[in-house]
Amino acid sequence: MTPAFAALIAICLALVGVAGIIVPVLPGSLSVLVALVVWAIWGGSTQSLVVGIVGAVLVVCGMLASAVLTQRRLGARQIPQWPIAFSLVVGVVAGFWIPVIGLPLGFIVSLLLIEYVRVKDLKAAWSTSVVAMKSVGTGMLLELAAALLAVTLLGASVFASLIL
């Protein structure tokens, strides 16, 4: 594989990965990780290898930070993982039915309904739903920040290798 073709594949995978962190239908951080591995192996230089390794460490740290932070905040309020996972699936399905606003709307409404059924009190359900949404959102932002930093490194490396 030529470095130019590796760069094309890596950039496309990285863009899909960044979009996947925001829209959970697409694979997110894993796509960015694969893009970095592709560039590290077939980039054809020591620079591409270093960028691949540093970027991979950033992406893995972002994924771990997201998971740990989300789990810690949910555990502190004794909120199980399954309502969030179920609401995410409902949100994705709603995203296909109602473009643009279906994903967040489906996620929020289904999470509130599930929490209401689980705790049997609307005020408590609203409170736990807000905590769950904040923790998931914060986790997504952390993961996105790490992935964007890794993709920026990747883009700079590709630019330096192929253009300069």
Given helix and strand content, the structural type is mainly alpha
Q: What is the number of helices?
A: 6
- The geometry reads as elongated
* Share of residues in helices: over 70%
Main beta-sheet annotation: none
What's the pLDDT, averaged over the residues? 91
The total strand number stands at 0
What's the gyration radius in Å? Answer: 19 Å
| Percent of residues in beta strands | under 5%
What string, H for helix and E for strand, traces the elements in order?
HHHHHH
Span of the ends, CA to CA: 20 Å
Uncertain runs: none
Oligomer: single chain
What can you see in these coordinates?
The chain is mostly helical and 164 residues long. It contains 6 helices and no strands. Helix 1 (3-22) packs antiparallel against helix 2 (29-42) and helix 3 runs antiparallel to helix 6. The longest helix has 41 residues, at 122-162. The radius of gyration is 19 Å and the shape is elongated.
